[in-house]
Design goal:
The chain has 247 residues and is an alpha/beta fold. The chain folds into 2 domains: 153 residues, Peptidoglycan recognition protein-like (Lysozyme-like); 62 residues, PGBD-like superfamily/PGBD (Muramoyl-pentapeptide Carboxypeptidase, domain 1), CATH 1.10.101. The protein has a 6-stranded mixed sheet. Strands 2-6 form a two-stranded antiparallel ribbon. A hairpin with a 5-residue loop joins strand 4 and strand 5. Helix 7 runs parallel beside helix 9. The two termini are 32 Å apart. The mean pLDDT is 95. Bound molecules: zinc ion. The site of zinc ion has 4 residues, from loops.
Length: 247
């Protein structure tokens, strides 16, 4: 049972999921707009061709815009674990937040509580593994920053929604960070591990712009205390820990 207010507001922006796709992903977003009303209008305007299944307002009020069985248009050009039709296999939730462009704010306890309740319900209805609970930036690292580093992924994971790593920094054996311009085996090792986790990243051995974008996305989700695009030893420890969790 939902323990929050659910308002039906049908968006025309959806179509059928591609046949043979199972719903096995949950993608979180922020609206990136100043007001809730603007966001709702955009997500329900046929000319924008964007939508999501749900939108959660700052006060925890939840709007259902698209039926779960339909294919909402929230992922855009994106990629995870080699698949690029993320809309066909996912449920998309928008969280009201002005975003990095208009004054990024923390997600309130009420909004997070509604997100938890809604997500738990979704996870009981579909076989969505924890490693498939992702942010828009995870599946479109070069285009998107949402839902951003202020989302409390640790809290969600503690509620059984998605993954988290509790690895902490150790002073001993501190290795040099990898960053833009680096090349070689350590870079390709990092790229392969990130690709194995699911990120769309080339395994060229060159720390290029695309690699930087993926490392930033990884940090936003799993190392939000340090957003600099440098892959340090704690990024590596957390990535290896996450890979152990999905084995
Ligand atoms: Zn988004």
């Amino acid at each position: 049972m939902l323990n929050f207010n659910l308002i039906q507001q049908q968006s025309p922006n959806f179509n059928n999921r591609i046949k043979n796709y199972e719903i096995d992903m949950l993608v979180l977003h922020y609206t990136g707009m100043v007001s809730t009303q603007d966001a709702l209008e955009r997500l329900c305007n046929p000319s924008t061709e964007v939508s999501a299944h749900y939108l959660i307002d700052l006060d925890g009020t939840c709007f259902q815009l698209v039926k779960e069985t339909s294919r909402a248009w929230h992922a855009g050009k994106s990629r995870w674990a080699g698949d690029s039709d993320i809309n066909s296999r996912s449920i998309g939730i928008e969280l009201v937040n002005p975003g990095h462009q208009f004054g990024y704010i923390s997600y309130s306890d009420t909004q997070m509580g509604a997100l938890e309740s809604l997500s738990k319900g979704i996870l009981t209805r579909y076989p969505i593994p924890p490693r498939h609970v992702l942010g828009h930036s995870d599946i479109a690292p070069s285009r998107r920053q949402d839902p951003g580093e202020l989302l409390d992924w640790r809290r969600l994971a503690a509620a059984g929604i998605g993954l988290w790593s509790n690895e902490t920094l150790t002073i001993v054996n501190e290795k040099k960070s990898l960053g833009p311009g680096a090349t070689g085996k350590e870079v390709s090792h990092m790229q392969k591990k990130l690709a194995y986790f699911g990120y769309g990243i080339p395994t060229s051995g060159a720390y290029d712009k695309e690699t930087y974008d993926v490392v930033m996305a990884f940090q936003r989700h799993f190392r939000p205390e340090k957003l600099d695009g440098l892959f340090d030893s704690l990024c590596l420890r957390r990535l290896l820990d996450l890979l152990r969790q999905i084995e």
